[in-house]
Amino acid sequence: MIRIARTTSADQDFLTLVKMLDDELWQIYPEIQHLYAEHARIDFVDTVVILYFNEQPVACGCFLTHDKERVEIKRMFVHSQYRGKGFATTVLKELEQWARELGYTNSILETGHKQPEAINLYARSGYQLTNKFGPYVDLEDSLCFIKPLA
């Protein structure tokens, strides 16, 4: 059974999943993750989604306000044992719906070039490559995407 929860970054299940995400990113990008880690840190956000499968937290994501029209999707993660089941798509759709409910018209995000599953997820979900933004402008391993939410 799948359950989706809207919560905050103080949620212990979110913190556990994000720790797993950070550990995985250090394995994928051992030489450069120190450049990205500071941009991934979230002090507090009240727009977090956690997906539970049989009451186990297995996927998460959140968004931050980028400007008055755009949110930035952050901290997308699916536990390795639960990948390939569409959970990331479910989390992403929930985040987009929540952003629409709050009046945002576009979603942006960044991912790394060594994460083909994430790149494919975003492409399948209607995201298109866009100019690098914010802290990612000078980071050559970053790919930035945008999607209208209307």
CATH class: Alpha Beta
- Gyration radius from CA atoms, angstroms: 14 Å
What is the SS-derived class? alpha+beta
CATH architecture grouping:
3-Layer(aba) Sandwich
What is the oligomeric state here?
single chain
What percentage of amino acids are in beta strands? 25-35%
Number of strands: 7
Counted up, domains total 1
User: Which fold does the CATH topology refer to?
Assistant: Aminopeptidase
Give the CA-based shape.
globular
How helix-rich are the residues, as a percent range?
Answer: 25-40%
Structure notes:
- The chain contains four helices and seven strands.
- It has a seven-stranded mixed β-sheet with strand order 1-2-3-4-5-7-6, sandwiched between helices.
- It has a single domain, classed as Aminopeptidase (3-Layer(aba) Sandwich), CATH 3.40.630.30.
- It is of the alpha+beta class.
- The protein has helices at 12-28, 33-40, 87-101, 116-124, and strands at residues 2-7, 48-53, 56-65, 70-78, 106-112, 128-130, 142-148.
- The chain is 33% helix and 32% strand.
Topology:
Blueprint: E1 2-7, H1 12-28, H2 33-40, E2 48-53, E3 56-65, E4 70-78, H3 87-101, E5 106-112, H4 116-124, E6 128-130, E7 142-148
Parallel strand pairs: 4-5
Antiparallel strand pairs: 1-2, 2-3, 3-4, 5-7, 6-7
